[in-house]
Amino acid sequence: IQRNGRSVLQVTISVSVIGRLIAPCTAAGDNAGRSVRGAVVAKHSQHIGADVNYIAEMAGRFAQFASSHEGAVDASSAAEQARLEEALVSAVSAEDKALIESGVTSSEVSHLEGRDALASMLKLAANIRHAIGAQGSATSCRELSCGENAICQQVQQGVAQCRCVAGYMGDGFVCNPPTSFVEYSLIHPSSGKDELQLADLHVTPLGNSRVAVVYRDMSRSNHGYLMVGDAQPLKMSWSAPMLISSQSQVFNPKLVELQGGGGLAIGYRDQNRDGFGILHGVGLSPSEKVEDGKPLKHCVISPPKTFARHQAQSMVLLPLTGSHVVVLFAEHMTGGLASHLLGGAMYGSAVVANVRTDGSLPEMAGKHRFATGPVARLSAAMLSPASFVVAYRRGENDASAPRAEASCTFVQVRDNELVFATQPLSLEPDRTQIWARSVAPISVNTFAYTYHSGDEQVTKQAVLRVDPETHQVSLVREPQVIGRGFTPYVGSLSSAGAGDSKQASSLLFTYFTGDSSGNARAQSCRFGSEGESVGCKDMPWSSRELLSVSGARMGDGRAVLVYTDVRGSPYYQLLGLAEPA
Question: Would the pTM count as exceeding 0.85?
Fold first, then answer.
């Protein structure tokens, strides 16, 4: 046991020595954003005078040493086990047998520790050689320890490599959120058929690594379709589109996964102007494999349920407990007492519905109003499983009345009942023509509110916080300009989960159209627990002029962006939001 113990100690020292040798190189690669290979070359060229081949050669010797000692460790352990078993048979007293049995156990533990130490030596050697680009550095994935946001791939017989999962950039050891982006076609037109013309795309996460997408197909009589995507480590698979309803057109469709799992809620209006607000329940099988271009076998869509009339604005859906959802929409009433008002009565309203996944009709469970007057440009985000924030544009029928075009309010959920804050907050109350907007959580009770100011032709971002005692919204950071030029859309994706109190910081990816080129741009910022931003980076993420864009963060830390260009051609991108620890 002492002999095996010394062997394990010697291996530990060897690993430590090699670790100290490459630690400065790895640190340099992490801090400066360079590859490990470049860091090794720079370090040894300046201080040791050796080149990468020397490091590769020494790592190879290290691996040969470990391989040559595997048999010796096994043989030594087998001999020790045989000796102890023989002694156990000849032992007379119970005390002697107990001591020998303890020795047998200790011997086996030491054997496993020795094997683990040798395996760690082989893995370390392979990692060093792989990191500096040596050919044939790893023969199998058991020899490699890949970094966060990476997997090992057996690229061919006898050759294994670490690769960043789709949506991240790096060398397989350090994988970061991307600074350049890869675009894919969402749907390939069928041979001989007209070019696709899609609009109103919207995406929502499904569990850990799936999403669902709805859209309006202008080339097919404005019908609505549903697709499911499965984000695998190195690629994404998409099901064939499924018709939502053959009975009506679909404008500005939205969808959300039910908290109880196994289904979705889909909402839309059936006419661009003066339409009905429609809600469907959708039943899905979480275990069904998503195959490229193949229809889902287990998908049940309920008949349409009307929840509102005279619809002309986009709605928002959020999940509540179980199978309940809230639909936030602009209500417009023209009958009854409202007929005496010029243009009718208008409100910002919320309907709570129980959405079923067995094909039966959704049931309305209650309605609330959170704003009086014309409401448009709705956006909402969950701050916790039992609270959310709503951003909206509120106009006035009277031109002389004060405006609140960048408003927001906090909402609590109590047993699927909604409690709205008594005092909504209005950013820049004197300014008009505030159009597209987005809200996203960045830390506990704190969120970013991004919006486009039309008369200034700039996109701004403010940070707000909800007081946990009074439930009122207050300003943490004044609106700051993050983009210039007109944008028809604004969106934001956060690495912060709703109510995640353990996350000290979050990454916020905000996308919009920037400058005079009309191409898509983004700002990526890290936010601290107090709402302060650091390390903001501006970057292009698509060279196309876009009209419809939607993004959703999945449970695995990646996000999916779906969008159409001005011709209606659909695309998607995978985007990593989790930075390595």
Answer: no
